[in-house]
Amino acid sequence: MISLASVALVISSGALLSNAACSATISSLDDVANAVKCTSITLNGFTVPAGQGLSLSLASGTTVTMNGDISFGNKSWDGPLFTISGTGITFNGNGHKFDGGGPFYWDGQGINGGTTKPDPMMKVKMSGTFENVKVVNSPGRVFSVGNSAPLLLTGLTIDNSQGDQPNSKSGGQAAGHNTDGFDVSANDVTIQNSNIHNQDDCLAINKGTNIVFKGNSCTGGHGISIGSIDSSVTVSGVVISGNTITNNDQALRIKTKSSASGSTVKNVTYSGNTATGIRKFGILIDESYPSTLGTPGTGVIISDINFVSPTTSISVVSGAERVAVNCGKNACTGTWNWSNLKVSGGSAGPITNFNGISGFSQ
Ligand SMILES: *[C@@H]1O[C@H](CO)[C@@H](O)[C@H](O)[C@H]1NC(C)=O
Ligand SMILES: *[C@@H]1O[C@H](CO)[C@@H](O)[C@H](O)[C@H]1NC(C)=O
Ligand SMILES: *[C@@H]1O[C@H](CO)[C@@H](O)[C@H](O)[C@H]1NC(C)=O
């Protein structure tokens, strides 16, 4: 006969085993399955075999600490190279890096042509804190963020600067292409104090609520972007503040697909951003994507886009346009307070189908 007390003992020791405060070390893919049963994990440096990803599906409350650099064998496949999921996770890179081996893949065509590239490189589906990680040479897009509870990404470095140069396969174009820094489709995300050097959007918000992007520096890419917005999505409660944007195509952009319907972009607040050397548009709000300043769609309603103190200051190169706004008829609504925006250089751009901008003229 088994007593009730001994059954309870078995159950509780089982729970202890699967939920244990044990420590584990990962030094190869072979270690992962057992290590993820522990809530304290050290991630040593190693090379992940070609054609495989490192995927950490973690118990709630796990802390992972990097103790070396992770690189990936070279092979043309879909990726992702790294995936992390779990709730209340702390991932500390300790300044170590993930090396995506970009030069092996880069051909100037990004993710829409040429060789198949692992994309995205880093898939973050956790909540908690992901910090102090360096990512170099992503084959395509870098971070895809799709958490389901609050997530802080802080102190990250994305260095794809090597992709600025052409290579033997890129026909004179920059070899790196479509190397978005952060693609966000999630609620309650803060990305802060990070440095991004790439060849596409520094940040692209595709959907979500309560998204903060602050104190980051964006170099060489296409700027800080909401979109491209597709059908049936909402973006709201976005704060873009204190970022430094250097030598990008745009500083700040909202782009919506001309074919999109049933979507909303609202309550976006910009403050204290500084942009210099902007090559195409200081501010571009355009409802005609994939065209630029083409025939705008009317299926995405944009409202409440404001520049608050401290002033956002943007300087564009000669030949660039300061501000261009291309709305579908009645698709941009309300009054937008732009009294804390200054844009210099270049020439004035067109403002189409909207007269609700207050406190700013170009
Ligand atoms: C992948 O290829 C790149 C460039 O060709 C090279 O720098 C890197 O060392 C290679 N990675 C591995 C793990 O062999
Ligand atoms: C706008 O977004 C901010 C930041 O997420 C939020 O605090 C504020 O409540 C929102 N305002 C409205 C009217 O929803
Ligand atoms: C815009 O904001 C400024 C500064 O925050 C304020 O002084 C001004 O009254 C606002 N304008 C409108 C039309 O709300």
Q: Report the bound ligands by name, code or SMILES.
A: 2-acetamido-2-deoxy-beta-D-glucopyranose
Report on the biggest sheet. Answer: 11 strands, parallel
By DSSP, the count of extended strands is: 33
Radius of gyration: 22 Å
Class of secondary structure makeup: mainly beta
Unreliable spans: 1-17
Would you mind describing this structure in some detail?
This protein is mainly beta and 362 residues long. The protein is 6% helix and 45% strand. It has helices at residues 4-18, 32-35, 102-105, and strands at 23-26, 40-43, 46-48, 54-57, 63-66, 70-72, 82-92, 97-99, 122-131, 134-136, 143-145, 151-154, 157-159, 182-185, 189-192, 195-197, 203-214, 217-219, 224-229, 234-241, 244-246, 250-257, 263-271, 274-278, 281-289, 300-307, 312-316, 321-326, 332-333, 336-337, 341-344, 351-352, 357-358. The strands form three sheets. The chain has an eleven-stranded parallel sheet with strand order 3-6-8-10-13-16-18-21-24-27-31, with no helix packed on it. It has a six-stranded parallel β-barrel with strand order 9-11-14-17-15-12. It has a two-stranded parallel ribbon with strand order 30-33. The longest helix is centred in the first third of the chain and has 15 residues, at 4-18. The site of one 2-acetamido-2-deoxy-beta-D-glucopyranose (NAG) has 4 residues, from β20.
Q: Which features characterize this protein?
A:
11-stranded parallel beta sheet, Pectate Lyase C-like, 6-stranded parallel beta barrel, binds 2-acetamido-2-deoxy-beta-D-glucopyranose
